[in-house]
């Protein structure tokens, strides 16, 4: 179901960018699929499981700078998050974002899907497209899409999650605005 949703989203137009938070673990077909549905750049970072049989040469951090209409640059950062302890600690993720000058930080490791605004920094965790297990995750397959409108600063986030028990695909929408180098809730 979750892969079908990805396919539906790119039927009209491919994603400009794709961010993958690591733990490839010998999945070349899926990585090729993500490359095929991406127009510009496909960003990948190393995850803790990649040391055993995945994408060992990927960096720990990646970033993308987007020029916004307000003459500010929105910087999206990507990391797996295995360097954060305890897992998924928002304060530590926020510190990474501040240190690296990221306005948005996309991380993984916990497999817990999350959209969280902390001190003008948007912290995103897409969860796991396979529904991989962890101590804190739902076990439901999930991913996130971002729509960024450069001239208005609008950032629209959609979390897609396939609820296994209900056998239903859900989407959770969140709206933000980037202005004066800060992100705030739109409403």
UniProtKB/TrEMBL annotation:
Domain (Calcineurin-like phosphoesterase): residue spans on this chain: 9-133
Pfam families reported for this sequence: Metallophos_2
Identification of the protein by name: Calcineurin-like phosphoesterase domain-containing protein
Lineage of source species: unclassified sequences, metagenomes, ecological metagenomes
